[in-house]
Protein backbone atom coordinates (compact mmCIF):
# COMPACT_ATOMS: atom_id res chain seq x y z
CA UNK A 1 0.00 0.00 0.00
CA UNK A 2 1.30 3.47 -0.81
CA UNK A 3 2.42 5.47 2.18
CA UNK A 4 3.31 9.05 2.91
CA UNK A 5 6.87 10.08 2.34
CA UNK A 6 8.88 12.50 4.51
CA UNK A 7 7.42 15.50 2.67
CA UNK A 8 3.79 14.45 2.98
CA UNK A 9 3.56 13.18 -0.61
CA UNK A 10 2.13 9.77 -1.38
CA UNK A 11 4.89 7.33 -2.27
CA UNK A 12 4.29 5.38 -5.45
CA UNK A 13 4.67 1.63 -5.45
CA UNK A 14 6.94 0.18 -8.10
CA UNK A 15 5.41 -1.93 -10.84
CA UNK A 16 7.16 -4.96 -9.31
CA UNK A 17 5.53 -4.31 -5.94
CA UNK A 18 2.14 -3.90 -7.60
CA UNK A 19 2.60 -7.11 -9.60
CA UNK A 20 3.47 -8.93 -6.36
CA UNK A 21 0.35 -7.55 -4.65
CA UNK A 22 -1.88 -8.63 -7.53
CA UNK A 23 -0.33 -12.12 -7.59
CA UNK A 24 -0.71 -12.42 -3.80
CA UNK A 25 -4.37 -11.47 -4.15
CA UNK A 26 -4.90 -14.10 -6.84
CA UNK A 27 -3.08 -16.75 -4.79
CA UNK A 28 -5.32 -16.02 -1.80
CA UNK A 29 -8.43 -17.38 -3.52
CA UNK A 30 -9.42 -20.54 -5.34
CA UNK A 31 -11.35 -18.77 -8.10
CA UNK A 32 -10.45 -16.36 -10.89
CA UNK A 33 -10.90 -12.67 -10.01
CA UNK A 34 -11.95 -9.73 -12.17
CA UNK A 35 -9.87 -6.54 -12.19
CA UNK A 36 -12.60 -4.84 -10.12
CA UNK A 37 -12.46 -7.61 -7.49
CA UNK A 38 -8.67 -7.35 -7.33
CA UNK A 39 -8.89 -3.56 -6.99
CA UNK A 40 -11.37 -3.94 -4.13
CA UNK A 41 -9.23 -6.59 -2.40
CA UNK A 42 -6.02 -4.54 -2.62
CA UNK A 43 -7.83 -1.36 -1.60
CA UNK A 44 -6.10 1.94 -1.13
CA UNK A 45 -5.81 4.40 -3.94
CA UNK A 46 -5.12 1.90 -6.73
CA UNK A 47 -7.05 2.87 -9.87
CA UNK A 48 -8.96 0.28 -11.91
CA UNK A 49 -6.87 1.15 -15.00
CA UNK A 50 -3.69 0.49 -13.03
CA UNK A 51 -4.97 -2.96 -11.99
CA UNK A 52 -5.90 -3.70 -15.59
CA UNK A 53 -2.44 -2.62 -16.82
CA UNK A 54 -0.72 -4.80 -14.20
CA UNK A 55 -2.87 -7.78 -15.19
CA UNK A 56 -1.97 -7.26 -18.85
CA UNK A 57 1.75 -7.18 -17.94
CA UNK A 58 1.40 -10.34 -15.86
CA UNK A 59 -0.54 -12.00 -18.70
CA UNK A 60 2.14 -11.02 -21.24
CA UNK A 61 4.79 -12.55 -18.93
CA UNK A 62 2.77 -15.78 -18.67
CA UNK A 63 2.20 -15.32 -14.94
CA UNK A 64 -1.60 -15.14 -15.08
CA UNK A 65 -4.24 -16.77 -17.24
CA UNK A 66 -7.35 -14.95 -18.45
CA UNK A 67 -10.74 -16.61 -18.47
CA UNK A 68 -13.49 -14.96 -20.47
CA UNK A 69 -17.10 -15.25 -19.39
CA UNK A 70 -19.09 -13.16 -21.84
CA UNK A 71 -17.52 -9.68 -21.88
CA UNK A 72 -16.16 -10.04 -18.39
CA UNK A 73 -12.59 -11.29 -17.99
CA UNK A 74 -11.28 -12.89 -14.85
CA UNK A 75 -7.71 -13.82 -14.02
CA UNK A 76 -6.04 -16.63 -12.13
CA UNK A 77 -2.36 -17.34 -11.49
CA UNK A 78 -0.61 -19.59 -14.02
CA UNK A 79 1.52 -21.06 -11.20
CA UNK A 80 1.28 -21.13 -7.45
CA UNK A 81 3.74 -19.17 -5.32
CA UNK A 82 6.06 -22.14 -4.73
CA UNK A 83 6.21 -23.01 -8.44
CA UNK A 84 6.97 -19.41 -9.38
CA UNK A 85 9.71 -19.14 -6.75
CA UNK A 86 11.28 -22.43 -7.87
CA UNK A 87 11.23 -21.22 -11.49
CA UNK A 88 12.98 -17.99 -10.48
CA UNK A 89 15.61 -19.99 -8.58
CA UNK A 90 16.27 -22.23 -11.61
CA UNK A 91 16.54 -19.19 -13.89
CA UNK A 92 18.99 -17.54 -11.49
CA UNK A 93 21.17 -20.67 -11.43
CA UNK A 94 21.08 -20.87 -15.24
CA UNK A 95 22.26 -17.24 -15.56
CA UNK A 96 25.36 -17.61 -13.41
CA UNK A 97 28.74 -18.87 -14.60
CA UNK A 98 29.06 -21.41 -11.76
CA UNK A 99 25.72 -22.87 -10.58
CA UNK A 100 27.41 -25.22 -8.07
CA UNK A 101 29.14 -22.29 -6.34
CA UNK A 102 25.81 -20.44 -6.28
CA UNK A 103 24.09 -23.46 -4.72
CA UNK A 104 26.88 -23.72 -2.13
CA UNK A 105 26.37 -20.05 -1.20
CA UNK A 106 22.60 -20.52 -1.11
CA UNK A 107 22.79 -23.54 1.18
CA UNK A 108 25.13 -21.81 3.65
CA UNK A 109 22.46 -19.13 4.13
CA UNK A 110 19.61 -21.52 4.97
CA UNK A 111 17.97 -21.49 8.38
CA UNK A 112 18.17 -24.73 10.40
CA UNK A 113 14.53 -25.48 9.50
CA UNK A 114 15.17 -24.91 5.78
CA UNK A 115 18.30 -27.05 5.95
CA UNK A 116 16.36 -29.91 7.58
CA UNK A 117 13.67 -29.67 4.89
CA UNK A 118 16.29 -29.69 2.12
CA UNK A 119 18.07 -32.72 3.62
CA UNK A 120 14.74 -34.55 3.86
CA UNK A 121 13.87 -33.71 0.25
CA UNK A 122 17.25 -34.91 -0.96
CA UNK A 123 17.03 -38.23 0.91
CA UNK A 124 13.32 -39.01 0.53
CA UNK A 125 12.37 -37.06 -2.58
CA UNK A 126 9.40 -34.73 -3.06
CA UNK A 127 6.16 -35.68 -1.35
Automatic annotation (TrEMBL):
SUPFAM superfamilies, alphabetically?
Winged helix' DNA-binding domain
Q: Name one GO molecular function term.
A: DNA binding
> What are its GO biological-process terms?
negative regulation of DNA-templated transcription
Q: Does the keyword Electron transport apply?
A: no
Could you tell me which species this protein originates from? Streptomyces spiralis
- Family of this protein: Belongs to the BlaI transcriptional regulatory family.
**Which keywords fit this entry according to its UniProt record?**
DNA-binding, Transcription, Transcription regulation
For the keyword DNA-binding, the answer is yes
Q: Which InterPro entries match?
A: ArsR-like_HTH, BlaI_family, WH-like_DNA-bd_sf, WH_DNA-bd_sf
Instruction: Kindly provide the name given to this protein in its UniProt entry.
Output: CopY family transcriptional regulator
Amino acid sequence: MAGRGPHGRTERRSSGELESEVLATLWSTERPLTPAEIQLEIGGDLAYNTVHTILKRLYDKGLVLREVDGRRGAYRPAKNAAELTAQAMHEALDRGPDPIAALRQFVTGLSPEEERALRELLTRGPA
